[in-house]
Amino acid sequence: MKMLVTGGAGFIGSNLVDQLISEANEVQVIDNFSSGKKENCNDKAIYHKLDISSINNIDALKKIFEDVDTIFHCAALARVQPSIIDPLKYEVNNTLGLMNVLKAAADVKVRRLIYSASSSAYGPTENLPSKESDPVNPISPYANQKYYGELCCKMFSEVYGIETVSLRYFNVYGERQNLGGAYATVVGIFINQILEGNPLTINGDGSQRRDFTYVKDVVNANILASSSSKVGSGEVINIGSGKNISINDLADMFGAEKKYLKPVNEPFANLADIRKAKELLNWEPLVDLDSWIKEYKLSNRVNII
Ligand SMILES: NC(=O)c1ccc[n+]([C@@H]2O[C@H](COP(=O)([O-])OP(=O)(O)OC[C@H]3O[C@@H](n4cnc5c(N)ncnc54)[C@H](O)[C@@H]3O)[C@@H](O)[C@H]2O)c1
Question: 95 — phi, psi (to 5°)?
């Protein structure tokens, strides 16, 4: 099958590229390497260095998409806090980027597009676990854009006939996650702090709870979404572990000293109801965070108390 991954040099996209190649697909990648890395590239895939958010690139996108069966749209400026600092940059990149990809894909009749959506769409809620039919409450530019992207995908299925599916990922961790910089998330930040011998920094009192999802489980969800006959009309599907833990619990799993910082504006808890993923994709998470951390500590000889 001819597959294309936007954002395929990034954390989730590059894990997806490797899996697609190992399943004997022909894989192309579009990435502008804004946060993607050369070392994530697979020498069996074809890479196009291109900015998807520039309207001037629509013809180039169409040319690349000719003959492509499925697009996995992972490209985005990911992360909540940097989007609050620079909402315009995020808007152009994430909203126009998706719109260009959808328009070019529909024009050349790509069969299906799988959209990397985000659990941030739920925002603060006491109604947990979150079901896809629950009201959304995005509280950052990034969350708004990711949610609007779902609406764009559904609209493109209805108006332009391209099959789409939106997968709402919950806090993804695993190999190739960023360990530092603006794009690092808490598991990566903790690993980095441990490697550097620093205490684990926690925003607020650490009682906030998160549903953490392993990157290869997210990859499997994408691959199942590309072939399931039960989706293609803009369905929204949670991809989470179905369990949540507090940030204090997470720090305890790593077993290092904690340091508390000022709280940031973030939902108190998230937790996915994952029944729809089972029903429509026959997907279930296979790896849990605790075992992954134990494995990580063993294989990297991370010597912590
Ligand atoms: N990591 C998570 O916990 C998480 C959770 C929910 C949703 N998501 C979504 O999953 C997707 C992948 O996230 P990630 O964590 O792998 O992020 P990432 O930053 O590692 O990867 C994103 C990739 O997109 C590329 N990119 C960004 N803008 C581009 C543009 N205009 N043109 C071409 N390429 C561009 C980047 O260079 C990078 O390689 C994103 O859409 C993100 O919103 C991630």
Answer: -80, -50
What pLDDT digit, counting tens, does each position of 71-108 carry? 999 999 998 889 999 999 999 999 999 999 999 999 99
Q: Which fold has domain 173-211+243-270+287-299?
A: UDP-galactose 4-epimerase; domain 1 (3.90.25)
Which residue is catalytic, options 47, 90, 122, 142? 142
Six token digits for residue 150: 């779902």
Give the start-to-end residue ranges of the domains of the chain: 2-172+213-239, 173-211+243-270+287-299
CATH of domain 2-172+213-239: 3.40.50.720
pLDDT higher than threshold 80 for residue 182: no
Distance CA 76, CA 53 (A): 9
Ligand 1: residue whose CA is nearest its atom 7: 118
Q: Residues with Cβ < 8 Å from 250, sequence gap 6 or more? A: 186, 187, 190, 210, 212, 289
Q: Which is the closest atom of ligand 1 to the Cα of 52?
A: 32
Instruction: Identify the band that residue 278 occupies on the pLDDT scale cut at 50, 70 and 90.
Output: very high
Quote the pTM value.
Answer: 0.96
Distance 11 CA to ligand 1 centre (A): 7
